[in-house]
Amino acid sequence: MAEVLLSNVRKSYGRTDVIHGIDLTIRDGDFVALVGPSGCGKSTLLRMVAGLEAITHGDISIGGRVVTDLDPKERDIAMVFQNYALYPHMTVAANMGFSLEHRGGSKTQVAERVRWAAGILGLEQLLERYPRQLSGGQRQRVAMGRAIVRDPQVFLFDEPLSNLDAKLRIVMRGEIKTLHQKLKTTTIYVTHDQVEAMTMADTVVVLNAGRVEQAGPPLELYDHPANQFVAGFIGSPSMNFIAGTITADGFSTSAGAVLPLPESENRLPHGPAIYGVRPEHLALSTDSGIPAQVLLVEPTGSETQVTVQLGGTRLVCMLRERAALTPGSTVQLQPRVDSVHLFDAASGKRLGA
Amino acid sequence: MAAASTALTSTPAPRRRPYWTIARRDALAGWLFVAPQLAGIATFVLLPLVLVAWFSLHEWNVLANTFNFVGARNYQQLLADPNLPGVLGASAVFSAGLVVFNLSLALLLAVLLNQKLAGIAVFRTLFFSPVVVSLVAWTIVWGFLLQKNGGINGALLALGIEGPNWLRSPGTAMASVIVVQVFKNVGLNMVLFLAALQGVPGELYEAARIDGVPRFKQFRRITLPLISPTIVLTSIITVVGSLQVFAQIAVLTQGGPGISTTVLVYYLYQQTFQFNMFGYGSTLAILLFVIVLVLTFAQWSLRRKVVFHEER
Amino acid sequence: MKNAESKRRAAPSFLAPPRRARRDAAGLGAISAARARLLIYGGMCVLLIPFVFPTWWMVTSSIKPASDIFAFPPQLLPTHTDWSTYAQVFKLQPFGQQYWNSAYIAALVTVGTMAVSSLAGYAFARVRFPGANALFMVVLLGLLIPAEVTIVPLFQLFRRLGMVNTHWPLILIPIFGAPSVFATFVMRQFFIALPVELEEAARVDGLGRFTIFRKIALPLARPALASVAIFTFLHSWNLYLEPIVFLSSAHMFTLPQALTHFTDAYGGPLWNVQLAAATLTALPVLIVFVVAQKQFVEGLAHTGLK
Predict the structure, then answer these.
(1) DSSP letter assigned to residue A257
(2) Structural domains of chain A ordered from first start
């Protein structure tokens, strides 16, 4: 069983804490994405699981074994690096077989293993090539091949797709996901791209400044963000936030407009709060609603992104159809009331259910 | 309308291209830029080379003022010279010993200095310091330390060991000269190797660590291949340099005892400036030149086999 | 999950990671790390001895009375000091003049080499002219030819020109001949690595080749020029063969040559005086080195032996 447990893991450099007491349970076979802005500590956390960084406090266990003080090679893990870390002077086959060579298998066993991994990743034709002769996507696949050839208990990915262009990234995303479905190995995947996290992971862990903001299935983080940070981080384009006050009549913005509150949530505390609504939940109508002024109309072909001005705030609406709107005209906003999120103005925590 | 269209469709009269096109002017600039260096090479390198070959065909005693064409006689004398095998042997031993000792020590020091320890830069400076000290000064100090009753034997005596007369005994004389030369210059190679070591991406070692590759194997299979271009270039330079070592031998042993430390270059100096056999000295110079060419060419060809070619 | 389990059981045993018998207690790990570090420092200090000791010995012995130099047990620090050795240095030889000789020759050679090699290096790197490759090979030949091979004809050459026992050979040969070839090589490597766009932008602005060289390439070449200056100066300061071949009067000598002439009436070396002279010879270089060590070492490392 390859369950990964982090208990109260802390990391400090001198007197500065970079990772503050993180508890995390990763079930066997799960694909977990660690996501967050630059500097949030996700790579550091991954490297601590790998054993490349020392843990100042706390414990990590893999598959039931406590690995906190073990060397990377004893943890039965494999890692795919952002810059591939392929040995430039070895062929693809040699790169993939390098880690197996000294573990006591015979040459034929190693070759068999390499061939198996190459088959899964479509690298059979490239085995005798050198890394410099490969494209970015091919190199990334070789790096993955090197990881799977050892059949470890856990795969660690450190922003593997960051160096690829946009189209290739989408292709590789699918390939990594397919690989996981086939091998079912526990995977920890670090990325700063929340779209990658959402599409690939079974569980998404959002990190910010060394702390876990929320952990759970992607759609749960999308539909029920625990705080304003997660709400704003997950989802593209990001959620719209409007400052104001919760009153008995609704949400009164600082500009004076009154936005509708979700009906079932009437145990909401009155007072300053943040009103959050996703762009796709902001409908535009010509008759009733909250008046706003159109600033930008950006059609993508399948959708139309409309930026409007409401009082002092800019809001982004995502419409599924083509809209013939002109900048400067006035539209009526109709937020989908049951998809509205409210957050405490001071702490950012979610209000209500 | 009609006039405009004919103006557009008719071909313009062909212009005569000026002689001094941009490309030609640039080429001229190029030649002018390299002219000083080329003139210098022609005068101070090529011309002397030709002259040396010419001189080697003469018997030429400067004191007696004789300059006679003798054809290949100097070369015959070379082949029959009883000292020559000893001289070549001394050169071979000196170069081989020096290169092996120098390169391994430089690599060892570079690896040691490549760690992130406090104050490592101070060590690097200290290991490098002999390179900048005057060669003759360095040699004189060592010459003095290597005396029969000098500093080194004094230290050994304190430990109860009686040291030999380092510079006057056949076996130790050669070893002493090698050691003195290596410690003087190894700092240079050390710095070059250090730069090469730091050019290896750290991620490769991390990947190897995760895969469980033992430390020594990392060095052999990752580090060495990736710094092999530097190793080869450094060894070429060191070998060529070792064949030119003159001052240390002149100051420390004067080629002795006997001819055990008379390397080719020193033999050349003796024949030319001490025995005034300028013709024969020139023959030796040609021999030295040929040896350098052969060794360099051999090392350069080996390069393809040993060096991993990094993509440019 | 069952599939994963059975697959793992089927995988060859050699894939299993080495298992530790016991978990390593954190305390023990920390101690041996510190001990390892101590070992490394200690080892390096021991290795340092042959590198540093001679310089130390040179400086301390230069102020010992002659009898103390050979004293047993050897004195690491002088017990009696005899500062007269330094005065004797100047009395026995025109040492001041010799110092000046070495200094101005080295300065001229450095400046001259920087000029010649930067021009040639730039042209070989950037300018397209017919025969460039072949000419570069010819220039490289200079690297392979030991000074001793060409010294005889050069001597004859300068003798015909009446320049023996002058400093001209010591200035002209290094600037234009074999020693400057390495400098040209270094400059060429450097200029190749400069982005072409900078010069192309200048071309568009209408600058000529020489102006581009003077105003753009050269100012950017400071690191390479620095390392050229350093090793050229060192090379000239330490020249030994050429001075003893070309120079015969004491007041023309350069320092390395002069060092070997501190002898007593019987022709044996006056050790303490010689060491004092050696200290004086090494002093300026050592001072500059200590002050500018970073540039020194990095300049040499960046000769780009790639």
Answers:
(1) -
(2) 4-227 (3.40.50.300), 240-344 (2.40.50.140)
